[in-house]
Specification:
- By secondary structure, the chain is an alpha+beta fold.
- The chain has helices at 2-7, 12-19, 24-30, 35-42, 44-54, 149-156, 269-272, 326-329, 395-412, and strands spanning 61-65, 74-79, 102-111, 114-121, 126-132, 137-141, 161-171, 174-184, 189-199, 204-217, 225-227, 230-237, 245-250, 262-265, 278-285, 288-297, 300-308, 318-325, 337-342, 349-354, 359-364, 370-373, 382-383, 389-392, 419-423.
- It folds into two domains: 2-53, no CATH class; 56-423, Methylamine Dehydrogenase, Chain H (7 Propeller), CATH 2.130.10.
- A hairpin with a 4-residue loop joins strand 8 (174-184) and strand 9 (189-199).
- The model is unreliable at 1-6 (pLDDT under 50).
């Protein structure tokens, strides 16, 4: 009886009001105090109340390096945002400490606050983990039963193999399941792909062969863009070395024909196919896949941003959201720049790198206002447009490393993806439990 009285010192109604005004960092801690508090925090009522009070609050996120292991995986971090209240950038959480010493530790993919991590121990053991870094929850993913560790190493050396696919299943804004996806093309140019898929709901791997309506060059499987259970990656048709299509597959719903991948042509690709000297990327923003390019147009540089609205093989699958000539609209912007990512939550804001200024450019496409941010010593921080603290970690070094490749890609017609985003969810998203 005495124990029950102690637990009820704070009435539940008052406790809910107090918790709802805290940042998620503290709510995550209080969730582990006792079963009663966990039950309150996990309830739909509390989550809806919290969202009503914090609907306009900013969220921590990072720009990730996908290409070079010599610099930090997180090149720009946004922290100090109201919803999570983190004092450090997300890169400081992006690791799992195994029982043995590590030779290699790589972040393969991030989506909905969940991370796919690859680790090699000094003894040569290969390990894959899926986890929620902030809640320090990690689950080791077994290798496919038909593959040995030696087989996996051989696959990793294959240019047409990728082990970095990660998609999630969401219900009411909460991750309720995830799938790890490995992709393999049998030939450099092929109509078929093989998926090896691990599901948290079954704890098993399955192998699935899918086809495309036309043969494509699969030299860009090394990085995919995940969104809403769908993976998107770049591919080229047989008549072009450059990426002229986005290929997608929904790993929870399948496609129009469950055995077919969706093939979506880039907008305006026919217009520029003879002289594709423009800089581009695909990213995500405000719940959509977004395509951005910078093109030399009539003596000026024009930024165009499209949103993916359909998965059909048709140019109208993309809707033009923004078109801005920076030469006429912006002064002091610099002439040599390329797109990095869109802001993941605000589709008005694009991030670019200016070679002239050696700075990250935050540009509001609606108001034409922009700010320049240089990499500064660790103890100093920048402020982003949404009020978060920005911390750079090897950003300029990474931009300098990829710039020669990026320029050669423009001149030689071989675009690729160099950046990804890690965005914290708007709720705690505990890691789904593996099915027994």
């Amino acid at each position: 009886m005495e124990k029950k009285q102690k637990n009820n010192l704070v009435p539940e109604e008052a406790l809910v009001k107090i918790l709802a005004r805290l940042s998620l960092k503290y709510i995550a801690r209080f969730r582990s105090v006792c079963k009663e508090w966990k039950s309150i925090i996990d309830s739909d009522f509390f989550r809806d109340l919290y969202e009503s009070l914090k609907s306009s609050s900013s969220v921590s996120w990072s720009i990730m390096n996908t290409r070079n292991k010599r610099v930090s995986v997180e090149i720009v971090g946004h922290h100090g945002c109201e919803r999570w209240g983190l004092t450090n950038s997300l890169g400081s959480y992006m690791h799992h400490i195994p029982e043995t010493k590590v030779r290699n530790n790589s972040v393969l993919s991030c989506t909905d606050g969940i991370v796919l991590l690859y680790t090699e121990t000094v003894e040569g053991e290969l390990m894959y983990h899926v986890g929620n870094p902030l809640l320090r929850q990690w689950v080791r993913i077994p290798l496919p039963p038909h593959l040995s560790a030696f087989d996996v190493v051989r696959l990793q050396e294959n240019r047409h193999f990728s082990d970095n696919g990660l998609v999630t299943k969401m219900e009411k804004g909460i991750v309720v399941g995830y799938k790890v996806v490995w992709m393999l093309a049998s030939y450099p140019a092929s109509k078929e792909l093989t998926f090896m898929i691990y599901s948290s709901e079954t704890g098993l791997w399955i192998t699935k062969k899918v086809r495309c309506l036309r043969a494509l060059l699969w030299s860009r499987l090394g990085y995919s863009v995940p969104l809403n259970g769908i993976l998107h990656w770049l591919a080229a048709s047989g008549c072009s070395l450059d990426a002229d299509y986005v290929v997608s597959y929904d790993f929870y719903k399948g496609c129009d024909d469950d055995l077919d991948c969706n093939i979506i042509p880039f907008p305006g690709i026919q217009r520029f196919e003879r002289n594709q000297r423009f800089k581009r990327t695909i990213t995500t923003s405000a719940g959509s896949v977004v395509y951005c390019n910078v093109f030399n147009d009539s003596g000026g540089r024009t930024i165009r941003v499209w949103r993916l609205v359909s998965t059909k093989d048709h140019p109208k699958s993309w809707k033009l959201s923004w078109k801005l000539n920076t030469n006429s609209s912006l002064i002091g912007f610099g002439a040599d720049y390329f797109p990095v990512v869109m802001h993941p939550l605000n589709s008005d804001i694009i991030y670019l790198w200016s070679r002239n200024k050696n700075s990250l450019v935050l540009l509001n496409l609606r108001t034409h206002k922009f700010s320049l941010h240089k990499e500064v010593p660790d103890e100093e921080e920048n402020k982003s447009m949404d009020g978060c603290n920005m911390r750079f970690n090897g950003c300029k070094a990474y931009m300098d490393l990829i710039y020669p490749i990026f320029v050669n890609d423009i001149l030689g017609g071989f675009h690729n993806l160099y950046f990804s985003q890690y965005v914290l969810p708007r709720w705690l998203n505990p890691l789904p439990q593996l099915s027994s």
